[in-house]
Amino acid sequence: MFQLDNKFLEDIGLGDLPEDDKKSLLLELYRELELRVGTELSKGLSEQQMREFEAFVDRDEPKVRAWFDKNLPNYHQAKDFVQLQANAPAEVEEIVLISEYGSLKWLEMNRPDYRQVVAAELEKLKAEMLQKKDTILGSDAQAA
Question: Which of 9, 41, 53, 88 holds its CA 20 to 30 A away from the CA of 131?
Answer without folding.
Answer: 41
